[in-house]
């Protein structure tokens, strides 16, 4: 486990918090993107859906599992 860096006051600086937030968000979006591609979405559609945090990943995958085309699923989700 990597220790959390400490700023002068004992907490993280604003810059450190921002970097942690961005890298965590990037990891989540990458994971969502991979899951969407595995489900059958093309790379471009998976990128759009992965970055749309208000779209439920399980719902997006479920649409394809129930027989929707990617195009129809995108219409429903977006």
Tell me about this structure.
This protein is mainly alpha-helical. It is built from four helices and no strands. The chain is elongated and about 55 Å long. The N and C termini lie far apart (38 Å).
CA-based gyration radius:
17 Å
Strand content: under 5%
Number of helices: 4
Structural class determined from secondary elements: mainly alpha
Portion in helices: 55-70%
Unreliable spans:
none
Care to count the β-strands?
A: 0
Specify the biggest β-sheet: none
Rough shape? elongated
Mean pLDDT across residues: 87
Secondary-structure element pattern, one letter each: HHHH
Distance between the termini: 38 Å
Topology, element by element:
Layout: H1 14-39, H2 43-51, H3 57-65, H4 70-77
Helix pairs in contact: 1-2, 1-3
Put the structure in a nutshell.
The protein is mostly helical and 78 residues long. It has four helices and no strands.
What are the salient characteristics of this protein?
4 helices; 78 residues; elongated; single chain; mainly alpha
